[in-house]
Amino acid sequence: MENNIQHSDIYAIAFHHRFQWEEAQQSYVILFPEGMVKLHGGAGEILKRVDGKASVGDIVLELKATFPDAEEIENDIVGMFDLAVGKAWLRKVN
Predict the structure, then answer these.
(1) How far apart are CA 69 and CA 50, in angstroms?
(2) Is pLDDT of 16 > 60?
(3) Which residues pair with 30 in a beta bridge?
(4) Model's pTM, two decimal places?
(5) CA distances, 30 to each of 12, 17, 20, 54, 63 (Å)
(6) Helix crossing, 56-66 with 73-86: angle to 10°?
(7) In whole angstroms, what is the distance from residue 25 CA to residue 29 CA?
(8) Whole-number Å distance between alpha carbons of 56 and 60
(9) Residue 85: which residues within 8 A CB-CB, separation 6 or more?
(10) What 8-state DSSP symbol labels residue 52?
(11) What is the tens place of the pLDDT at every residue in 33-79?
């Protein structure tokens, strides 16, 4: 599968979607009219930084600084963006 995510890309949560911490689930979730997706910890860490201003590259750098022991984290982050865009959870801003 070809990855089209670029480090200069900027994303925001898609219209009609809401990203939030869900106390009952003890995890971050994405809510949308058709349902809810519970996100694992790594996905939540990525998406909580998606604000319509930070680029993918900015988020990669921030997460590498936050989790310096996580090897190969960049591929996981870009993969999560690719998944989230594919699922229409994110919209491209730039």
Answers:
(1) 22
(2) yes
(3) 19, 37
(4) 0.92
(5) 13, 7, 7, 19, 20
(6) 140
(7) 8
(8) 6
(9) 4, 5, 11, 92
(10) S
(11) 999 999 999 999 999 999 999 999 999 999 999 999 998 899 999 99
From the list 1, 15, 3, the residue with the least C-alpha distance to 56 is: 3
Which residues, 6+ apart, have CB-to-CB distance to 88 below 8 Å?
Answer: 14
SS3 35: strand
The tokens 């591929």 sit on which residue? 75
Give the helix, strand, coil percentages of the chain, each rounded to 5: 35, 25, 40
56 close to 3: Cβ distance less than 8 angstroms: no
- DSSP lists the bridge partners of residue 12 as 91
Amino acid, single-letter form, for residue 7: H
pLDDT at 7: 97
Provide the Cα torsion 23, 86, 15, 24; round to 10°: -10
What angle is formed at CA 22 by the lines to CA 17 and CA 26, rounded to 5 degrees? 140
